[in-house]
Amino acid sequence: MAVDVDHSVVKSADHGTMLEYSTEDGALKILGFWFFLAQDMILFACLFATYLILHNRTAGGPSAMQLFDVPGFAAETFILLTSSFTYGIATFQMRNNRLKSMLIWMGITVLLGLSFVSLELKEFITYVLQGATISRSAFLSAFFTLVGTHGLHVTLGIFWMISVMIQLVKRGLTPVTARKAFIVGLYWHFLDVIWVFIFTVVYLTGVMK
Amino acid sequence: MTDKDQTIVTAGGHGRFPWSHVIGYIFSLVLTLVALLMVINHVASGGMLLFVILLLATIQIFIQLFFFMHITEKHGPAYHIITLAVALFFTFAIIAGSLWIMTFTQLSS
Questions:
Q1: Closest Cα to residue A201, out of A82, A66, A68, A43?
Q2: A127 occurs within a structural domain
């Protein structure tokens, strides 16, 4: 299907039409990305279901209560919440046609994402050094699979965001780069939602009682 | 593009200061802190506490959707909302169904 990319709509930030929606192609790809998020949600639903069933099957190994460290997972949570906010600001700046400021906020988001991933890696390494490896018990298999899958998503998101930043620097704000930046944002906010549930269902219930 | 395609509802899209983002951020921080403090201080018994923190997490979904993900913006019919609703239903079915069916393991062992 031929897609009509009309660059004459570009100046639109002041006119109410947003760049990322300004072409049929862009609008369809944003809709398509919502479909992707819906199916990614089902992937996480399966991993959550597995975790909920297995979280007490520790096979004599360490339990959630013994492993989880409140300041550690709280820090991860607040970092990710903040990064979702900073990317929101990046989108806001994009819609006000302020490329430089947008790139700065995206950069802050990348840094927050990197600190989240490094904290998570540090957490995993601490567990493994205590003998809590993925093969130790059903609880740990489910834990590392669920939290690790989220961590991989975040890692991918960081690389994706950097590549969109490079395109923005090279090409400026066009309907195509704006659409890409908006979609990375949707992905990033989605990962924050998933983390809120990991925080609640895995970590908070793990340290309850 | 038809005229209909141009009707995109803006949610915190334009302006000098991103108020809606700041409000969304404050909400998400407060909800997270409340959940964390409630668990640390054992303010309620297990079942009740679990219900409340799950409720707080669910509110956070809507905060992300409305304040950051601009869910109200659409280009033609709101297919993305229908899809999300279907996915939420599947999520519920997978999790609740799995937990329910596993309650029968005591009977078989």
A1: A68
A2: yes
Task: State pLDDT tens for residues A27-52.
Answer: 999 999 999 999 999 999 999 999 99
Report how many domains make up chain A. 1
Q: Domain map of chain B by residue range?
A: 1-76, 77-109
Does A144 lie at the interface with B, CB-CB under 8 angstroms?
A: no
**B11-27 residue pLDDT tens:** 445 567 888 899 999 99
* DSSP labels, B56-96: HHHHHHHHIIIIIS-TT--SSS-HHHHHHHHHHHHHHHHHH
> Domain holding A117: CATH number?
1.20.120.80
C-beta atoms of B32 and A78 within 8 A: yes
Q: How is residue A41 written in tokens?
A: 């949600």
Measure CB to CB from residue B18 to each of A92, A196, A200 and give the nearest one: A92
pTM: 0.87
Q: Is the ipTM of this complex over 0.85?
A: no
Does residue A6 belong to any structural domain of this protein? no
Residue A9: inside a domain, yes or no? no
Taking the Cβ of residue A71 and every Cβ of chain B, the question of whether any pair is shorter than 8 Å is answered with no
Residues of chain B with C-beta less than 8 angstroms from the C-beta of A96: 14-15
Which residues from chain A sit within 8 angstroms of residue B32, using beta carbons?
77-78, 81, 196, 199
Summarised one tens digit per residue, pLDDT across range B29-84 is 999 999 999 999 988 888 899 999 999 999 999 998 998 888 888 777 888 999 99
Q: Name the nearest CA neighbour of A15 among B94, B13, B48.
A: B13
Residue ranges making up the domain that contains A131 = 19-206
